Each structure stands twice: as structure tokens, then as C-alpha cells.
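Researcher: Next sequence.
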Amino acid sequence: MTRLSTTLLIAVVAGLAACDLPRAHGDATAVIVASESEFWIEGEEVFREQLEPTIQTVRNEHPYRLTHVDPDQDEAWTQLQRFRQVAVLGSRGYRWVDEALDRAGATEAEAPALVVARDVWAKGQQVWVLLLPDEDSPEAVKELAAEVRERMDVEFQEYARERMFVSGRDTILADSLAQNVGFRLVFPSVYNDTVHADTVFRFRNDNPSPTELIREVAVSWVEPMPEEDPTREELEQWRLDLTRAHYAFPQDLDTTVVSYGPIEVNGSEGVEFQSAWVSLPDAWPSGGPFIVRALRCPEQDRMYLMDAWVYAPNREKYEYVIQLRTILDSFRCS
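Model: Next structure:
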């Protein structure tokens, strides 16, 4: 399959004309899919398969929400075409396809092709044009949608990391931990609530309010370093003991969805366990995703144990899981 990428050209052409456009709305995970109904009947299943794979947070959920609209039949298109993320499916001759290609300066693109355009119907918007052939459209949708998902996810993760570090990187804390404790982690500056008890260090961000959003990371270690990596069951027990001894509100485990396997972070090898936590039966009902890692530092004869969790009721968790992973991925033995 031949693919066309004109991102550089698009950024220049669209940028010149964006001043007169309204501001895009909607969040980065809401994707409006514009196509003629016949194209959608043929391609919906494979498109959703690529753009809505399940990820693990509290439970399996979709990282992106898709809303289909037929611009020739739905009056809602006038408003939906101004969303931040719009995917356009179709061949030449459809008004919305031609408009996007024209704004992108990609009118010579040959189907099948993926053209990424900015500021087509709104300022701050990104439009993914899946230019389809007249025949074999489902197969073309499958391959082009896979590329859309890959590129969209890279951009969303960059967006999530940029948002988490708007307050700046707390390099002073990272340097202090490295010099005085033995490990380095880089937190956003808003993680200003550091609690130290025994060999457990906790770093918490409960902005704007702990009733709305909490992100917390706890770090401990075992010394001397065990010969074997902990099993999933051992990590489960460690986390249960940690929450009961050090968290204000102990947490239980919801292991409906679990992942466990080897991991390597900046030269340190170990294992990662991800699942969900829930409040105890007699407490206020709550829960969220967590990530536990056990990483080896042979030069210190230590195995570090890390627990990162989020509480975000009535919010999608994907962005916060990315934030937690970004912090954990900054770990280094000092």
C-alpha cells in the first residue's frame, strides 16, 4: 500500500489560513469520524478495532472515544467539525474530503493515503484524512487506521507529558534524593507533599482537590537485594502491607484485569505489576489504577519497590497512567 504523508507542507499551508477560524473544542481523546454512511457501514468494525483497542486502567477501557457523523445527513456536523480531533474517511468527490485535502495542499494525493492536516475547520485542530480507493475500502481503512492510532497515541502521550510538567520539573528534589537516599525520580513541581517514614518515601499530588484527583508514588527498598525477582503474589502482598502501614486510607486489590512481566528502566532490570485498587468494604466506594515495580540496583545491593496510583472519580484514567509511567520511567540508581 502506498501512503502519503504531507505533515510539513500542511503545517505551513494551514497555519497561514488559521487566523480566521473558530477555536477547536473537545478533548484530545474525543475523535469525530466523518464519512458517508456507506463507507462507515463497510469500515466501522475495522476502524474501531484499530482506534478503540482496550487499555488497562481501573478496568479495560478505550483510550479514544469515536463519534460517527455523515456530513450530508447530520446537522450536528456543523458543530462536530470544530472538534480538536477529526478523522475523515472517503474518496475524492465527497465535500468534506475535498475540503480537507484542499486546505492541506494535498489535492494530488493518490488513494490509498493518509494525509494529516491542521486547522481545517477550527484553530488548534488536527484532521486525519484517510483517502480511500473506490474498491477494497475496508482493507485500506484497516492499514491507514493502524497508522492513525500509532501516530495519534505518540502525540497524545507527548501532550500528557507536557501537561504534567507545566509546573516545571523538580530537579532539586531529584538531586536531593540521589545524593541522600540512593535513587533518583523526577516529579512535576506540584508533587510538594513528601512523606518519609522508615524506608518508605511518598510523593503526592492532590491538586486541585483530594476529593477530585490524587496521584501518589511510594518508594521503598529491600536490602540486601534478593536473588530472585518477586512474584506477582509477593508484589500483591507488599502493596497490601504498604497501604495498611503508610496510607491514610488502606486499599484492597481488584485483580479483574492484571498485567505482570519483566521490565528494564535506565539499566535497572526487574518486574512490573499493574492492576487496580479499591477501597475497603466499610469505606467510601473508590478505586483506580496502580503500577508496582521492583527494580534491581546491584551496585547498592538493593531492590527498589515502587507503587504509583491514581484516584480520579468520573474521569478517564489513561492520561494519568501515562503521567505515572513517565515518573517511574525517570528512575535511576544513584
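Model: Residues 260 and 273 are 4 Å apart (CA to CA). The radius of gyration is 23 Å.
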